[in-house]
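Notebook, p. 212. Picked up where the previous page left off. The plan for this session was modest: take the two constructs that came back from the sequencing core last week, fold each one, and keep the raw output in the notebook itself so nobody has to go hunting through shared drives later. Recording the first one now, exactly as returned: residue sequence, then the structure token string.
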Amino acid sequence: MVDLLCMGEPMLEFSQLPAGADGRVLYLEGHGGDTSNAAIAAARQGASVSYITAVGRDMAGESFLRLWVREGVDTSTVIQTDTAQTGVYFITHSETGHAFHHYRTGSAASRYTAADVPEAALRAARMFYASGVSQGISTSAADAVFRAIDVVKSADGAVAYDTNYRPKLWPAARAAATMHAAMAMVDIAFPGMEDAAVLTGLTDPQAILDFYLRLGPKVVALKMGADGAWVATPEARTHIPAFPVDAVDASGAGDAFCGAFLARTLAGDAPVQAGRYAGVAAALKCTGYGCVAPIPRADAVRTALAGWHAGIA
């Protein structure tokens, strides 16, 4: 039985580096895609992980297959196709933060359907994880995620879901309706503060926690970037301050948080304990460029946690 089965769209990444002395802008090739990032983060914390997606039989798809094998992420539920390509995106940086520029229309993952869902693998997984991006890339992909959730719940597995709203994928009203229908079926919800403001119209963290808990999740982890995170259950809620680092690139930090949180939950940690660990993992990820390469491994997270100030470690 695998611990965690993630589903979504991987995308080959090109992350902008600081300009050289000659002023040229250079890009570091890497790997991205929110649920793929989270899968790798979970694997680096010791969880057994598999991934559900479709990739092209192209350079980017082959690169991802090699990456997942290196990272210990099982690829038996990955479809490789000759009829569509793997998506690509660029990350640029400015004084206002980082920005994503995606080239994914008609990608292999966006053509995934409910008929492609690997039901036997889902029934054998302890937990399933998807996101708003997993559903926002196409109507067929949205239906596939709902089908996957149904299969997992029918087998008494757990489900986790990250909003990760991308306005270029779909209008806010349709995204909110789809995501909140999914959230009503999950055990662990990962809304982001900026996402929640758009999807719910709320800006107070406590009101946002109330909103998502009313949908039915047993745990809500509200990601707030530099303001840390809130971890809430119907019985209690705790604020987790951000772990201090010299951040250079926050892209993928939320994915690292989700993957680390799920890995520690599957290992038996209580929600607040998992949240503190995940907050450190997400912060350490921000000390390097790109979504995947800087994701820390368990020993680095534990070392940082051990050195954190009293009351947090």
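Okay, moving on. Second construct, recorded in the same format:
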Amino acid sequence: MRLFWEIVSLSLRRQVTYRAATWAGVATNLFFGALRAFVMIALYAGRNQVAGLTMQDAITYTALGQAVIAYLSIFGWWDVMESVNSGEVAADMLRPMSYLRFWMASDLGRAIVNFILRGATILLIYSLFVRLTLPHSLWQWLAFFLAVVLGWFVSFGWRFVVNLAAFWTPNARGIGRFAFGITSILSGFYMPLALFPDWFRIFCEMTPFPAMVSTPIQIFLGEINGVQIGIALLNQAIWGVALLVAAHLILNRGVRHLVIQGG
């Protein structure tokens, strides 16, 4: 475990050095966050509630969605693909820890920095201009932060599985773009799942994707309470474990088929 946290620490320091990229990302997220908020305002058009959400809830939803973009790498994460395509995977396999744990530690450091520098900053700036819906109790805050951690757990498992396509094709980015595009829709990132038709919402809830975005936001807004929170957290944990098990099995098959370019 000590080596795991050493890699997390190295990843943290590496991410902190890219300050210009961080603030450029914050500015971009705020711009598109404003556009999403305006869409929500237009949707309500004088109505007090839509699908059980007030306008304040909907704007808070957009703020939280923008805040987790970098934390969850929603629009794409290609590190493992690049490692395989460049041949660096050979050296990675020789490290004194498993390939999966190495990338998990590296991604955890990246996620922590982005949660603090980008996520928290975006929420703070939002709160200066609009009134956000906030959790009403300490338990709700704790459940939200736990859901955020488990959301990253599920997200990493899915992103790692998608990246493993590089073991079978020299250009897996097309697969990745499709997979991450589906993630943005089914996770509830673009809009609350409650706004979709019931059949589509039910379909989304049968996948791991809402566990990344929708579940933490629902807890934050108080859409689920009590026992429902416990069930939602358990669902996140189950999906996270299932995806990591799948990643481990697929990785083992991929390594047996690996051909290093030029070697």
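Notes on construct two before I forget. The first helix runs from residue 2 to 16.
Flagging for discussion at group meeting.
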